[in-house]
Structure prediction request, 211 residues.
Amino acid sequence: MKKIIKAMLFSITALFATASLPAHAVFIALSPSIQVSGTGQAVTVDLVAGELGDPIDTTIGVFDVDILFDNTVLSFVSFDYSDALGSLITNDFFDFTADAYTDDTMSGLNAAGNKINLNLFSFLFSDDLELLQSTVTTLASITFNVIDLEMGEFTDLDLTVLLLGDGQGNDFTGVNARGARVTTQVSAPSSGIIFLMVMIAAAPFVRQMKR
Prediction:
């Protein structure tokens, strides 16, 4: 039954994808991009989507991503979806994650234990999704245990986008996907990064002055 529903919903997505595409260059990323940790600690990263417009006029209605990690360094603990695509209680979305792999040990985790699939399809309309999402929206949170990361070492979490669409079923193109790094130490940021951080922090005040 799940496979039939899945095929129908993806057919609907493909049909809507022929409509006009949104103008915004959406990104999807793991946040924070750099996180300091070490052996025996737990780390949590958020799956976030941004550049959704200001005010919100573009929404995320469907996403399907893979997160690849080194399972000799990290062990997957769990993940939780946010309410950005609706509520599980009121059946606002269909969760394909549990059906993504045949491995029974952990929902969403592949048999090799080094890749997580997160895949949701929302039944809500764009107007409803606008109330749940912001210019940068958290879609899910993923937790790992650090099992072997010594001083001076790091490990990367790679993010692959299989599908990302808006609330009308349009498939985003040119999506910027950004992974994350877990490390035992972080060097001081360069002057360019500091300047970029200042510009991002000042953006809301600039918008307010323009209004």
User: Anything to note?
Assistant: The two ends are 52 Å apart (CA to CA).
